[in-house]
Amino acid sequence: MSAALQDPGPPPARQLILNGIFTENPVFRLALSLCPAVAVTTTVMNGIILGVAVLLVQVLSSATVAIARSFIHPRVRIPVYTIIIAVWVSAIDMSLAAFVPTLYAQVGLYVKLIVAFAIIISRLEVFASRYPLVPSLWDALGMGLGFLFALVVIGAMRELLGNGSLFGVALAPGKPLLFFALPAGGFFSIALLMALFNWMERRAAEAAGARARAAGGSHA
Amino acid sequence: MSAREETLRITASMTVVCALGAAVLGGVYVGTERYARAAQSRGERNAIVELLGLDSTARVTEVRQFLAEDRGEVVYEARPFGAEGAPARRLVFALDGRLVAQEGAGGAVLPAGAARPLGRLFLASRDGLPLGFVVEGTARGYKNRIRFLVGIGRDFSIAGVRVVEHEEDPGLGAEVATRVFGGQFIGRDAANIAALAVTRDPMPEDWRSALAQLTRVPAESWRARQAGLIARERARPIYAVTGATISSRALTEGLKSTVDHFRRRWALLEPWLGAGS
Question: Quick one: CA dihedral A97, B252, B254, B185, positive or negative?
Fold first, then answer.
């Protein structure tokens, strides 16, 4: 954390986005907000709606904190962050209820829970409170996209295995493995996907290492 | 900086944050409230039209029931559906069913907090003659309240069931919200509903495939087409969703008491709202 303070400047936008989606993916790498990730991802559509809601809340909250960071008293910053998040969550909750009532009927309960998502407040504390508006927006966008990506992948896996469908369109007869649609199956899905991500990263690291050795170890 | 000064600064900063937050929320509420209310009432209207197979010439009246505990009175307010805030026709009954007061449109507004809302029902009519009813009911589900609408025909048989709000488990209890489960109630009359039981026996395949058609066919024509099967199943209990006997029982019991209450309420209201309402 002290290293970030001495940082000469914020990382470039591209790196911030990729960071959120892959290297520091909130669900698969940081293992934050797993509970909601399990609760809503019974279908792809639910995952998309909650993912987009989280993305909006993250971007709006990070922007608010980045703009107001010099006015926020450090002794009460956590309560202030919580209020900022709660305001944006409520605003999005009311807008969803008014403009997309059918979708809201399915995910409305979980939208209110975004207030307690660890990923949002942790980005405010780690990033938005230290950097100006523009890099904070990129960081929020990256993290939000990373969360959305995770929810969509988990939702697709659970809907396909648990319900035999994708986006509500039946692809297989009956319910192949109903277990995956239930909460316990949600945790197993996340564990399996996390293992897959770890494996892919290890493969990528090994391949990079082999390339470096083949190049003659000039950087060694 | 003294401790006192710091406390004041913290208080001031928190106050400003809360005030700004409240202002944003107030703004969003004012901007969206109209749409949210319209969306909810549109959803209810669609459900009512679908449940009773209404056309555009039908009039829908919303009847709200309140209990004024301290005065020992039950108050019914009737107004055209969707005319929020319009003057209501009001009927006041004593707890023994005696009509205490009747006020036409334009009567005094019920003082807020004086009466507890008990429930709502919708009356569909054409040229003053009732076509059918939709009653809102609740049941205690596996986890939380199940809120549903039940369509009741002029002959007091069930026209259809729509679960509008529930938190049952996906793939298990949530299946009670499907047309396949709800369709089992269609065509049963009040006496049949009152004696209805739930069985864990598997649902016969021909009945299941007949019920599955309800997602594509309007209930009215489905009833005509499947009359034979419906008559056969009428003598049998409701088949519980596999693995969700509690949710299945909950909805069935909720439906039973809702239909029973409605029958008694309507016996009370019919002389006043039944014709020429």
Answer: positive
The tokens of A52 are what?
A: 């987009």
Predicted structure pTM score: 0.68
Predicted confidence (pLDDT) at residue A136 exceeds the cutoff of 60: yes
- Checking ipTM against 0.85, whether it exceeds it is no
Gap between the Cα atoms of A39 and A117, Å rounded:
13
Candidate from B33, B167, B171 with C-beta closest to A162: B171
CB spacing of A101 vs B43 below 8 angstroms: yes
Give the model confidence (pLDDT) of A15-40 as tens digits: 888 888 887 888 888 888 787 788 87
pLDDT at A91: 93
What order of strands is seen across the sheet that includes strand B158-165?
B99-103, B89-94, B73-80, B59-68, B116-126, B129-140, B145-153, B158-165
Contact A90 B169 (CB under 8 A): no
Q: Which residue has the tokens 């970030």?
A: A4
DSSP string covering A11-26: PPHHHHHHIIIIIT-T
Q: What is the pLDDT of residue B108?
A: 54
Which residue of A83, A90, A182 is in closest CB contact with B17? A83
Q: Quick check: A95 and B33 CB within 8 A? A: no
